[in-house]
Amino acid sequence: MKAAIYPGSFDPVTYGHLDVIRRAADIFDELTISVLNNVKKTPLFSVGERVKILKEATKDLKNVTVESFSGLLVDYAKEKNIHVVVRGLRAITDFEYELQNAQTNRLLSGEKLDTMFLTTSLEYAYLSSTTVKEIASFGGDISACVPEFVADEIYKKYGVTK
Ligand code: ADP
């Protein structure tokens, strides 16, 4: 049984993330999406809200589960006995950060945790949660970026009525 973890902030999930999730769920028998409880960031959505949104957005994918974690990814992966991390790569700008993380995780895990990268489908290459939130905060149209129910939740946070 091949299992993988897809960790991230997902604040909130976009079509870019969902593209990676769908493709990873096709490759692995089991995929755990893990929402990182990063105390250094000030998210728009709480961890609980992000988990709830992700569960709703992936409810048709039977081999996908959604959880949250805090602390080191290597410790969390070891606890779950999972040896593969999935990450998405949008552009060269993601590369250096992702390479550093992947190599650090490999080292910290005693070479037991590897990272697999899926490159973004071109139509989502421009998408980031940050941009989506910025557009939404000004009442802009984010229907091409996130599912409708996610867009509603974002507008609600910014007090935008649509
Ligand atoms: P983090 O804060 O950990 O970077 P994100 O939620 O922003 O978390 O991203 C999680 C993962 O999803 C990262 O690997 C990121 O590169 C990837 N990702 C984000 N947006 C996209 C996108 N539009 N297409 C493909 N992958 C993406």
In words, what does this structure look like?
The protein is an alpha/beta fold. The protein has 6 helices and 5 strands. A 3-stranded parallel beta sheet has the order 1-2-3, with helices on both faces. Strand 2 (30-36), helix 2 (47-57) and strand 3 form a beta-alpha-beta unit. The longest helix has 17 residues, at 92-108. It starts with a strand and ends with a helix. Residues 8-10, 14, 16-17, 20, 87-88, 90, 94, 120, 124, 127-129 line the site of adenosine-5'-diphosphate (ADP).
What's the helix and strand layout?
Blueprint: E1 3-8, H1 15-27, E2 30-36, H2 47-57, E3 64-69, H3 73-80, E4 84-89, H4 92-108, E5 114-119, H5 129-137, H6 148-158
This protein binds adenosine-5'-diphosphate.
> DSSP helix count?
6
Number of strands: 5
Any low-confidence stretches, pLDDT <50, length ≥5?
A: none
Cα radius of gyration in angstroms: 16 Å
| H and E order | EHEHEHEHEHH
Tell me about the largest β-sheet.
Answer: 3 strands, parallel
Structural class: alpha/beta
What is the strand content?
Answer: 15-25%
Helix content: 40-55%
Q: What best-fitting shape do the alpha-carbon axes yield?
A: globular
Mean pLDDT: 96
Bound molecules: adenosine-5'-diphosphate
End-to-end Cα distance: 45 Å
Please state how the strands of the largest beta sheet are arranged side by side: 1-2-3
